[in-house]
Backbone:
């Protein structure tokens, strides 16, 4: 195709990025890092979307539109998430997700 | 007569008056029962005003309808629908027709006089107000019964009267003989009422109505009843008539159910006068007269008629014979009442509709008079007795308290006295009261002569003569039973005159046989005025129905002769046979009335009984022997004095066997069988219940428990997952998503 980089490479990069994000989300002891992990996973999805758009349906623009939506969602999510983390920190003096178990009944 | 002016239209307010007439008495009863009874004066006023109001209304109706010639075919009626079920409603209402017109005069008049009498007679009784209350209820029921236009409401009032009778007979309920008499009266009449109820049901089943006018004034209906075959080879009309007559046998104390009436004399004397002479027992005759057309359609001399005639004749004879041998002044009158009611029933049995109704009216007057007179005598003798004891007995008893309850208490009189009891009702303790109680004496003589049928000037003569004439007519028209009835009634009338003279002589003539009688005094006006008024009617009530062809009297009365008969005739569809004047019954009537009185005078009046002297009847009758079913051979007087041992006979042959059956039933069937079954059932039930309990505990509860445990265990397990740590949740989500992915990608395909 364009410059010889196959679609699979993009998908591998995106998969790797997703796994890193997932690991960060599940394993980090800092809520902010967890949030960053979530951002990584979202961007992995974005890469997927762009790659599929470019290689499979370059005539439409649905992939671009979805990607733009996800940016917006990610930005909003980061804003809300950070606000939540700050307020949690204020009340508990900690941002360690393992210690935040008040959701247990 | 004064009632005979003919009228052609009736005022419209009569139906309203009919509806209202009994009401004041019921209201009076309610008021007395609900509080007025605390005050004696108020009670007296309430009862008197009520009975006067009833009397006025009833008299207005009577005087309006009395001259109305079309009353038979157009009675004053008013009905309304009651108990509507589906599209049929039972109609109840009131009526004024020829038959009850006469009672609308007699009943309220008698009630008023007896109320007045009671206010004095019962005045010192501690339960005076209760007495007046019951009396009001009774009088209201009687008025309701008279005015009912259908058998159902008549039956309701009939039973109400039965209840009042029960309560009033047992009024002195602390005396065993009184409450026993009350129960006896109630139970005995119940036998008759059962038959009446059966007759009523049969009648309704056959005709679909219980309205008197619709049944007895309707030729098609009567024809239908006469032509419908029923049991025993009789027509439905005959069976229904006889069943209803069964009610009469109970209520009017006819043989074989007559035994309750003499015992009913345990009640206060005004009760005896009102219920057991003038009104309630007459209501029985009235009932059979109501259904006379049912007998009429079975034909003259039919077996239904003959049964009635036979029962009437037996009752008349038994009553008259037993009365001869009684010493208790009220019991003589009680048997006399039974006997006279027998006359009426016998009159119906020989087809004498008019004579029976006529005798019903005249008898009510003179028998009420006699009872009130006897009450006056008892009251006077009681006072004499108290007067005597007050001298040396002061302080041992309260002055007057409870003395009224002793009036009617033979033997039960002075509980605190150790001396032999004094019986103020025993005629052997009387004598010589003529000069001491003159008003009572003369009115009693008038009543007694009316009862004996003293010729021409007493009401009893005219009505009894008419019964004889009717029986004789039946005999000459080929009904042998009527001949038997005629002879039996003539003999009974002779005995009637005899025992009347015996009673008058023993009570009033000669010298006092006890100190109490010597000190007896005449009573106050509330007791003597009713006597005088009733004495007036005991003489003049006969003139409403003197035969037009009777020598001399018929021509004096002219067009007014036989007024009552003409009125009554209108009420029947099928005409009764006209009575021709015949010398035989008149001669018989004259002969027995005068003969009986003369014999009585010979035995008792000429040489009045002295203290300690034997009763001539006893001396004479004791020569004869009578075999009895229960006590071996007795002399005739003792047998009669002991009421021909009917009570003993019933006890031995009915009550004791029934009691034995009942006892054995209790022992064998109740205890042995039913209880055993019940106990067995109880045991089986218990075991079954035990098994159920185990099943319940092990299976039902067990299953529920297991389910509960399971859920709890699941819950406990699930709880572990709920760590509250968001990363764990996320991990679970990821694992789940991965599992779903694996499932769809590799397994689902």
Residues:
């Amino acid at each position: 195709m364009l410059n010889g980089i196959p679609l699979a490479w993009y998908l591998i990069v995106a998969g790797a990025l997703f796994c890193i994000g997932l690991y960060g989300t599940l394993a980090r002891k800092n809520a902010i890092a967890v949030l960053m992990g979530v951002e990584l996973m979202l961007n992995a999805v974005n890469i997927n979307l762009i790659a599929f758009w470019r290689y499979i349906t370059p005539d439409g623009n649905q992939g671009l539109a979805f990607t733009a939506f996800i940016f917006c969602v990610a930005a909003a999510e980061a804003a809300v998430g950070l606000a939540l983390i700050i307020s949690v920190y204020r009340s508990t003096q900690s941002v360690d997700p393992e210690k935040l178990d008040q959701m247990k009944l | 007569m004064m009632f005979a002016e003919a009228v052609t239209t009736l005022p419209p307010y009569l139906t309203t008056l009919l509806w209202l007439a009994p009401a004041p008495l019921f209201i009076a009863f309610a008021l007395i029962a609900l509080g007025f009874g605390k005050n004696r004066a108020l009670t007296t006023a309430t009862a008197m005003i009520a009975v006067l109001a009833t009397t006025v209304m009833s008299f207005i109706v009577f005087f309006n309808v009395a001259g109305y010639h079309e009353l038979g075919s157009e009675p004053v009626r008013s009905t309304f629908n009651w108990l509507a079920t589906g599209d049929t409603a039972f109609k109840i209402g009131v009526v004024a027709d020829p038959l009850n017109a006469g009672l609308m005069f007699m009943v309220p008049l008698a009630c008023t006089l007896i109320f007045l009498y009671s206010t004095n007679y019962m005045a010192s009784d501690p339960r005076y107000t209760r007495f007046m209350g019951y009396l009001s209820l009774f009088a209201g029921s009687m008025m309701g019964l008279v005015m009912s236009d259908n058998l159902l409401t008549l039956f309701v009032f009939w039973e109400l009267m039965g209840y009042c009778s029960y309560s009033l007979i047992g009024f002195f309920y602390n005396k065993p003989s009184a409450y026993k008499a009350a129960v006896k009266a109630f139970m005995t009449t119940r036998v008759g009422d059962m038959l009446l109820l059966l007759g009523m049901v049969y009648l309704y089943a056959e005709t679909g109505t219980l309205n008197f006018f619709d049944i007895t004034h309707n030729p098609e209906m009567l024809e239908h009843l006469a032509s419908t075959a029923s049991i025993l080879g009789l027509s439905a009309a005959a069976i229904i008539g006889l069943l209803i007559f069964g009610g009469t046998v109970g209520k009017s104390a006819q043989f074989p159910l007559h035994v309750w009436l003499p015992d009913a004399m345990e009640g206060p004397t005004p009760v005896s006068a009102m219920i057991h002479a003038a009104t309630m027992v007459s209501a029985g005759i009235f009932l059979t007269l109501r259904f006379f057309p049912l007998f009429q359609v079975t034909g003259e001399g039919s077996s239904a008629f003959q049964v009635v005639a036979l029962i009437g004749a037996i009752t008349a004879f038994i009553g008259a014979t037993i009365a001869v041998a009684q010493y208790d002044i009220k019991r003589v009158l009680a048997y006399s009442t039974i006997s006279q009611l027998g006359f009426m029933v016998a009159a119906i049995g020989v087809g004498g509709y008019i004579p029976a109704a006529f005798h019903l009216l005249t008898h009510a007057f003179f028998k009420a008079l006699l009872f009130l007179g006897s009450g006056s005598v008892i009251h006077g003798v009681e006072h004499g007795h108290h007067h005597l004891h007050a001298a040396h007995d002061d302080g041992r008893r309260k002055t007057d308290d409870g003395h009224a309850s002793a009036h009617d208490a033979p033997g039960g009189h002075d509980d605190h006295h150790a001396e032999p009891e004094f019986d103020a009702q025993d005629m052997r303790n009387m004598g010589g009261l003529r000069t001491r109680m003159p008003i009572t004496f003369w009115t009693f003589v008038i009543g007694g002569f009316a009862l004996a049928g003293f010729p021409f000037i007493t009401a009893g003569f005219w009505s009894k003569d008419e019964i004889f004439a009717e029986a004789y007519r039946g005999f000459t028209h080929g009904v042998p039973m009527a001949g038997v009835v005629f002879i039996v009634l003539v003999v009974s009338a002779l005995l009637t005159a005899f025992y009347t003279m015996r009673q008058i002589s023993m009570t009033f003539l000669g010298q006092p046989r006890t100190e109490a009688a010597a000190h007896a005094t005449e009573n106050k006006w509330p007791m003597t005025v009713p006597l005088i008024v009733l004495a007036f009617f005991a003489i003049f009530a006969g003139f409403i129905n003197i035969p037009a062809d009777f020598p001399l009297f018929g021509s004096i009365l002219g067009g007014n002769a036989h007024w009552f008969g003409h009125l009554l005739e209108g009420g029947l569809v099928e005409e009764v046979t006209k009575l021709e004047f015949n010398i035989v019954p008149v001669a018989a009537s004259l002969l027995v009335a005068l003969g009986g009185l003369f014999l009585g005078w010979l035995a008792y009046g000429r040489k009045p009984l002295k203290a300690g002297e034997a009763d001539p009847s006893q001396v004479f009758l004791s020569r004869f022997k009578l075999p009895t079913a229960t006590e071996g051979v007795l002399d005739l007087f003792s047998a009669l004095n002991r009421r021909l041992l009917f009570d003993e006979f019933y006890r031995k042959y009915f009550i004791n066997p029934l009691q034995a059956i009942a006892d054995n039933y209790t022992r064998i069937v109740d205890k042995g069988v039913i209880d055993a079954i019940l106990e067995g059932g109880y045991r089986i039930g218990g075991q079954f219940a035990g098994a159920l309990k185990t099943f319940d505990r092990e299976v039902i509860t067990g299953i529920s428990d297991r389910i509960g445990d399971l859920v709890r265990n699941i819950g406990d397990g699930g709880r572990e997952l709920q760590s509250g740590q968001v990363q764990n949740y996320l991990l679970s989500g990821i694992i789940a998503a991965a599992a779903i992915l694996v499932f769809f990608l590799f397994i689902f395909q």
User: Anything to note?
Assistant: DSSP finds 31 helices and four strands in chain B. Confidence is low (pLDDT under 50) at residues 393-419 of chain B. The CA atoms of residues 188 and 257 of chain B lie 6 Å apart. The beta strands of chain B are 76-85, 88-96, 625-628, 632-635.
